[in-house]
Automatic annotation (TrEMBL):
<dbReference type="GO" id="GO:0008081">
    <property type="term" value="F:phosphoric diester hydrolase activity"/>
</dbReference>
<dbReference type="InterPro" id="IPR017946">
    <property type="entry name" value="PLC-like_Pdiesterase_TIM-brl"/>
</dbReference>
<dbReference type="GO" id="GO:0006629">
    <property type="term" value="P:lipid metabolic process"/>
</dbReference>
<protein>
    <submittedName>
        <fullName>Glycerophosphoryl diester phosphodiesterase</fullName>
    </submittedName>
</protein>
<dbReference type="InterPro" id="IPR030395">
    <property type="entry name" value="GP_PDE_dom"/>
</dbReference>
<dbReference type="Pfam" id="PF03009">
    <property type="entry name" value="GDPD"/>
</dbReference>
<feature type="domain" description="GP-PDE">
    <location>
        <begin position="10"/>
        <end position="246"/>
    </location>
</feature>
């Protein structure tokens, strides 16, 4: 199964864009990450009530917009009336929830690789993957696309409907049975929580030929310790902070 996206993996990935300095999962955060030299973005992909793929982390709208309730209960047109920037800062007023289509066009224009994290509401996995497939066909990207998810149903749907794209399993701690899980899902990598790292497990993952990526790392010293432990790349809210640290291995 596909490992091709990982062949172009940088060591630093902008988590939800440069989400420490601009509202997460919005175009300003993507623009800032690109201007800071990030080569890949990680974003969360969900669907609206009318089945359109949008970039958004939470199931509910309250934290990151001026709307209320479940994302999945609102049509794209209604979602596009919400302000997704004001919560972060007044200067981001009138920022909108991006569609996956907009993100793909932005990535194509700026030569950015993407880690699309599939964030389906439980029970809507197939619809979410299907919506992603539609946009990926309509907006072909010549940059690497890596799919990941905590949701194993979503990963199985991706294997069926987007078989050519590289897949990763997301977890918090590294599961004891990581190898079995990666094999069963035909995933090429494991993305886990950096604070829960077990270096011996990372070594085994790498020795077995899989990639090990860690989230969310905002401290350059922690990033260096992770690379030393064999971690291939880290997700960060502050790409500039990590990229300007001279000792980080080649991006
Ligand atoms: O994909 C890495 C990381 O984004 C997973 O957790 O909650 O930030 O989407 P979360
Ligand atoms: Mg994510």
């Amino acid at each position: 199964y596909s490992d091709t996206a990982y062949e172009q993996l940088p060591t630093v990935i902008a988590h939800r864009g440069a989400s420490g300095e601009a509202p997460e999962n919005t175009l300003p955060a993507f623009e800032l990450a690109a201007s800071q030299g990030a080569r890949w973005l990680e974003v969360d992909v969900a669907i609206s009530a009318d089945g359109q793929a949008v970039i958004f982390h939470d199931e509910r709208l309250e934290r990151c917009t001026d709307g209320k309730g479940w994302l999945l209960n609102q049509n794209l047109e209604d979602l596009q009336h919400l302000d997704a920037g004001l919560w972060f800062g007044k200067q981001f007023r009138n920022t909108r929830i991006p569609t996956l289509a907009e993100l793909l066009d932005f990535a194509e224009e700026h030569d950015l690789g993407l880690n699309l994290e599939i964030k389906p509401v439980i029970g809507r996995e197939a619809e979410t993957v299907w919506a992603m497939r539609q946009e990926l066909i309509r907006h072909p990207l010549h940059q690497p696309v890596l799919l990941s998810s905590f949701n194993t149903t979503a990963l199985k749907c991706a294997r069926t409907h987007l078989p050519h794209l590289t897949r990763a399993l997301l977890t918090e701690a590294i599961p004891r049975d990581w190898q079995q899980r990666l094999q069963d899902l035909e995933c090429s990598g494991l993305h886990f929580c950096a604070d829960l790292i077990e270096p011996a497990a990372v070594e085994q993952i790498r020795t077995a030929g899989y990639r090990a990526l860690a989230y969310t790392v905002n401290n350059p010293d922690q990033a260096l310790r992770l690379y030393d432990a064999g971690v291939n790349a880290v997700f960060t809210d502050f790409p500039q902070r990590l990229l300007k640290s001279a000792t980080i291995p080649d991006r």
